[in-house]
Amino acid sequence: MTPEDLRRDTAAVLGDSAAARWLVETATGIDDWARDRDMAVTERMVAHLDAMVARYRTGEPLQYVLGHWGFRHLDLSIDRRVLIPRPETEELVDLAREILEHRRPRRVVDLGCGSGAIGLALAAELPLDDTAVVLSDIDPAAIDVARANLAGIGRPARNVQIVSGHWCEPLHQLDPFDVIVSNPPYIAVDDPELDNSVRDYEPSIALFGGDDGLDAYRAIVADAPTCLTPDGWLIVEIGRSQGAAVQSLCEMHGFVDVEVLVDIAGHDRFVRGRYPAG
User: Fold this and answer.
1) CATH class of the region 83-275
2) Does the predicted TM-score (pTM) go above 0.90?
3) 66, 26 Cβ separation under 8 angstroms
4) Beta-strand pair 228-237/268-275
5) What is the mean pLDDT of residues 35-40?
6) Calpha distance 113→149 (Å, rounded)
7) pLDDT tens digits along 47-89
8) What's the rounded Cα separation, in Å, for the pair 271 and 105?
9) 3-state per-residue secondary structure call for the chain
C-alpha cells in the first residue's frame, strides 16, 4: 500500500479529498507528494492514520487532529490548549507590519498570544536588527505552546521574549511598545451562533469575553496607553458586530485616528487607534 492508496481510501470515507491528503501526509511524514506518493507505507503509519481519521469523524477540528497548522509562512504546533489560527488573523499581522516597518528600533507585543501566531509571524517577517517582540498570555498552557513554537522559527527567535500575566499588567515592567496587537476573546458567553465544534473543542479562556464579549477590550484599552511609546498604536481583532463599541472605547480613553477596518470578506474585523504624544 502507498500514500496514494491511503489518500484515495481516506477521501472515500470522509468525502473530503483535501482533509484526506493532509491526514495522510501527517501520518506518513512525506514532504514531497509527487516524489513520495508511491512509497511503501508501514503498519505504524496506517495505525496513525486510522487513529486520526477516527478523531476527525467525531467532529474534532482537523487542525487539532493534525497537531499543526499553517499561519502565514509558519507551520505552528496546535492543540486544544490554544485557538486554531484563522485566515483573517493573518491580516492583523499586515496591519502591525505597516507601522513597524517604518520604525527603528521597533517594539511590538502580542497580548493574549495563545500559540504565538501573531507575534512569531511578526518576528519572522520584520528585519532581524532593531526588532523586539514580546508574547504575553495569562494561561500557562498557552505559554507552553507558544514557547514550543518559538523554538521552531530559527534566528528571529533571538528577538522574542515571553511573559505571563493579565493583559497589560506584565508590560509595566518593560520598555514601552510601538504597537500593541491582540486577538482577545470576544465571543459573548451565550452567543447562539457559535459553532459547536468551536465551543466543544477550543479553549474557553481564549473564546469568551463576558456577557457582551467586550470584557477584554475594556481591560486592554484602558491600560494600553501606559505601555505605548508616543504615537504608539493599538490594533485589535474584533467580532463582526463590535466595531462601533470598540471604537468608542478607544476614543473614550484618548486614542485618535481610530478606525474600524474590514477583513478580506468585507466584515468589520479590526480596530486600530493611535495614542498621541503628550
Assistant:
1) alpha beta
2) yes
3) yes
4) antiparallel
5) 85
6) 11
7) 999 999 999 999 999 999 999 999 999 999 999 999 999 999 9
8) 24
9) CCHHHHHHHHHHHHCCHHHHHHHHHHHHCCCCHHHHCCCCCCHHHHHHHHHHHHHHHCCCCHHHHHCEEEECCEEEECCCCCCCCCHHHHHHHHHHHHHHCCCCCEEEEEECCCCCHHHHHHHHHCCCCCEEEEEEECCHHHHHHHHHHHCCCCHHHHHEEEEECCCCHHHHHCCCEEEEEECCCCECCCCCCCCHHHHHHCCHHHCECCCCCCHHHHHHHHHHHHHEEEEEEEEEECCCCCHHHHHHHHHHCCCEEEEEEECCCCCEEEEEEEECCC
β-bridge pairing 177-182 and 68-71? unpaired
Name the residue ranges covered by the structural domains of the chain.
3-58, 83-275
Contact 208, 188 (CB under 8 A): yes
Residue 278, pLDDT above cutoff 80? no
Among residues 110, 108, 233, 247, the alpha carbon closest in space to that of 177 is found at: 108
Find, among 118, 254, 127, the residue nearest to 181 by Cα.
118
